[in-house]
């Protein structure tokens, strides 16, 4: 999973004005399909619910291209739609689960000494994913975009926050995650 976050390469889809809704969706899905999979994983732990969420993201993405006016990049549009769908999903699930916490609450969670000694990368990444899934939707959206190597300006375009606010939130979330995993964790940049 960590390697996937570092590999954001891929061809930039063409965005000519006369491209059809179906073709635009196919190009976007080919270029950012793996990123959308990771995004769904960050928002939903349960495999069945994650598949439903991913299907809903793809459906809403396809629908959104009927009104895509190119005032932002195609990548920004894809992430904006995906995060909006995922956030709605979380808010629906919130009534059921009611387990979302703020950055401060994650920081205050007691450490589990048995987990502090984890050495397997898969276990550590799973633990990170669980912490990210417990964040409130905006914080989750910001850290997932950052893990996809987006800059503060791009994240701000998706979330509606100023780049300075985004940078501050990224710093706070990274600090909390770093403390939760200890100094020198390979995934905390």
What's the helix and strand layout?
Layout: H1 2-6, H2 21-43, H3 47-64, H4 74-97, H5 103-108, H6 113-116, H7 121-134, H8 137-147, H9 152-159, H10 163-181
Helix pairs in contact: 2-3, 2-4, 2-8, 3-4, 4-8, 4-9, 8-10, 9-10
Kindly report the average pLDDT value: 79
Backbone CA Rg: 17 Å
Strands, total number:
0
Shape from CA axes? globular
Category by helix and strand content: mainly alpha
Instruction: Provide a count of the helices.
Output: 10
Number of domains: 1
Measured as a percent range, the helix fraction is 55-70%
Q: What is the N-to-C order of secondary-structure elements (H for helix, E for strand)? A: HHHHHHHHHH
The low-confidence parts are 1-15, 113-118, 183-189
Distance between the termini: 15 Å
Q: Could you give a short account of the major beta sheet?
A: none
Structure description:
This protein is mainly α and 189 residues long. The protein has one domain (2-181). It contains ten helices and no strands. Helix 4 packs across helix 8 (137-147). It is globular. The chain starts with a helix and ends in an 8-residue tail after the last helix.
């Amino acid at each position: 999973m960590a390697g996937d976050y570092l590999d954001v390469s891929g061809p930039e889809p063409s965005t000519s004005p006369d491209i059809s809704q179906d073709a635009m969706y196919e190009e976007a899905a080919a270029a950012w399909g793996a990123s959308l999979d990771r995004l769904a994983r960050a928002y939903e732990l349960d495999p069945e619910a994650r598949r439903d969420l991913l299907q809903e993201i793809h459906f809403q993405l396809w629908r959104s291209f009927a009104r895509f006016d190119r005032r932002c990049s195609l990548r920004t549009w894809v992430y904006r739609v995906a995060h909006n769908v995922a956030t709605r999903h979380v808010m629906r699930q919130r009534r059921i689960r009611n387990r979302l916490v703020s950055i401060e609450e994650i920081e205050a969670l007691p450490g589990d000494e048995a987990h502090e000694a984890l050495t397997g990368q898969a276990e550590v990444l799973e633990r990170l994913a669980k912490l990210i899934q417990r964040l409130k939707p905006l914080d989750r959206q910001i850290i997932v975009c950052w893990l996809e190597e987006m800059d503060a300006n791009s994240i701000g375009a998706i979330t509606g926050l100023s780049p300075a606010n985004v940078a501050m939130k990224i710093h706070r979330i990274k600090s909390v995650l770093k403390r939760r995993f200890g100094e020198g964790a390979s995934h905390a940049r």
